Amino acid sequence: MSVWDDLTGQSEAIAVFRAAADSAIRASGGDASDNSMTHSWLITGPPGSGRSNLAFAFATALLSSSPDGDETTRRQVEARTHPDLAVLTTERVIITIDEVRTLLASSQFSPSVSRFRVMVIEDADRMTERTSNLLLKALEEPPPRTVWILCAPSEADLIPTIRSRVRSVRLRVPSVQDVARLIEQRDRVSPELALQAAQESQSHIGMAHRLATNDDARRRRELTLRTVLGIRSVGQAVLSAATLLEVAGEDAKAITEEKDSEERASALRSLGIEPGGTIPPALRSQLKTLEEDQKRRATRSLRDGIDRIMVDLQSLYRDILLAQLGAQIDPVNVSVLSEVKAAAATSRPEQTLAVLDAIATARRRIEGNVSPALALEAMLVAVTRKDSV
Q: pTM of the predicted model, to two decimals?
């Protein structure tokens, strides 16, 4: 089984990375006939396109004896336990400079069992300029057998000096059919549910998996759409903003709660503390650090949940607009299709465009640290204005 088999809708990018891995293997045997391989890579693409999956598939190929990867290395990379792999991923809002310093120190080591030492940075766009400049020095003068793989939504999310020192590979949005086929095969769900999840996630692979396998996630998404479709007054807009925040909070809690409890239990075991036992004062600082990290993760999960609601609402009003224009394009939100048609019949396209503009403005405001409650209220007031015209 090839390490590339689980990737979907990215045949061009896979061809580039497989050729690079093959080139690296042949170069290690003395064949330097091509220059497909380089020491630093940037994988860009929209959320859900599989940036991280492709990065770790490439890492597996580089750390294996074959460009298709071997099973032992694959398991080690999946568990993040391979001795020649270092990963920087953050569940916070930003990647700190101390985290990058630690990774840079690790990048100076020689590989122990493989040809390369591979350094992967997920969400490289979360680095501040100062942190990016620190990474730049490592990219300018890397050790001879260290390979960097960065992941970000777009090249514009990184400073120009880093962009000039990496080979960039852009991913495209997978088709709905490709994502549905992957979800059906991997998660063992019905073809109908897989297709609905792929449509409603707008080909976001991770979100499609969640919608296909989690009834509560599907319920919360449908509640979001029906809440907004039911707004008729400013008062309802304010109440609906609170409802959307509550839904985002429940979604974030569902994602983080189980992981938080597992991390705490693991930390207690490693410290030799029985479940329910008293924590010695000398060890409390370590648990406090863990709790602070979990709070930061919860903050990021909430922000991501709010942004996901915005994306869902954009898809909702996109469907309404297409219905108003009579476009023969498949809708995203098949679960509320009757409500979409009713909303399209009671408003005009220019009003729907005004709501789409309000949603885009709210996303920018929240990204700029405006209170999510205020941004959501202002956005939903635009819905009432649409209905009153």
A: 0.77
